[in-house]
Amino acid sequence: MSSVPLIEARAVSKIYQTKDGPVESLRLLDFAIAEGEFISVVGPSGCGKSTLLKMVAGLLPLTGGTLTLAGQAITGPQRDVGIVFQNAVLLAWRTVLDNILLQAEIRHMPSGEALAEAQRLIDMAGLTGFEGKYPWQLSGGMQQRASICRALLHDPSVLLMDEPFGALDALTREKMNLELQRIWLASKKTVMLITHSIPEAVFLSDRVIVMSERPSSITAIYAIDLPRPRTLDMMGSPEFAVLAKQVRSHFYTQGSLDH
């Protein structure tokens, strides 16, 4: 893992202009994410976590401060980023393979290379044999794995994930946490995950960024010093409990805690 920041924020702020006047969403955010790191962002509902992710993707402009990717200012949509949303957003009339290849069509990638990369990602994600299936024939977890493959097809440096497992049941979510860890270890991507689940954040991350109520600032950043690969049994360990309690204490202090 490189010590040079791949993503860097300095005094980043966001103010929305509304009919009732300006609304401050993010206030003076400072953080740096190294290449290959897995970072989770947690905070109360409505604090601006998704806004931050969209700003890193270049989908929303900053109001103040600087935000850079690989040393370059983020001023618009970034080609070197893949995004996974809460819902898989797969097209019902396209197969798994064709949904993944939609990325190639949009980006005008060479068809032969795209097909080979799609198959490699399908194998890595454990979807081999399901290439010709349609979204309605897949479980929710398999749909999200296809969505992750689509986001990785153009080989971005950064994978941004906005509560990707929030719609899944608890058991499937735990399985997807293991799958995401496996995919991340294999792909060596830099990941920024927005999540409402403190155990999920601790389980997956190298560091967890804790955000406050709106106008949101960074309350704390915790290093998660647990060995990898991590197992679900680790969630019952004293070390895991201490880390989760540290993160959770911020929300009890503020009188709010996401589910």
How much of the polypeptide forms β-strand, as a percent range? 25-35%
Unreliable sequence segments: 254-259
What profile does the largest beta sheet have? 6 strands, mixed
Distance N to C terminus: 32 Å
State the fourth-level CATH superfamily of the largest domain. Answer: P-loop containing nucleotide triphosphate hydrolases
Order of strands in the sheet with most strands: 6-7-8-3-9-10
Average per-residue pLDDT, rounded, comes to 91
| CATH topology value of the largest domain | Rossmann fold
> Could you say which overall geometry the principal axes of the C-alpha atoms support?
globular
Summary tags:
four-stranded antiparallel β-sheet, 25% strand, 259 residues, alpha/beta, 7 helices, 35% helix, 2 domains
General description of the model:
The protein is of the alpha/beta class. The protein folds into two domains: 33-61 and 72-80 and 157-259, 3-Layer(aba) Sandwich (Rossmann fold), CATH 3.40.50.300; 90-155, no CATH class. It contains seven helices and ten strands. It has helices at 49-57, 96-107, 111-124, 140-152, 170-187, 198-204, 238-254, and strands spanning 5-18, 21-34, 38-42, 64-69, 72-73, 81-84, 158-162, 190-194, 207-211, 218-223. The strands form two sheets. A six-stranded mixed beta sheet has the order 6-7-8-3-9-10, sandwiched between helices. Helix 2 (96-107) packs across helix 3, helix 2 (96-107) runs parallel beside helix 4 and helix 6 packs across helix 7. The radius of gyration is 18 Å and the shape is globular. The two termini are 32 Å apart. 37% of the residues are buried.
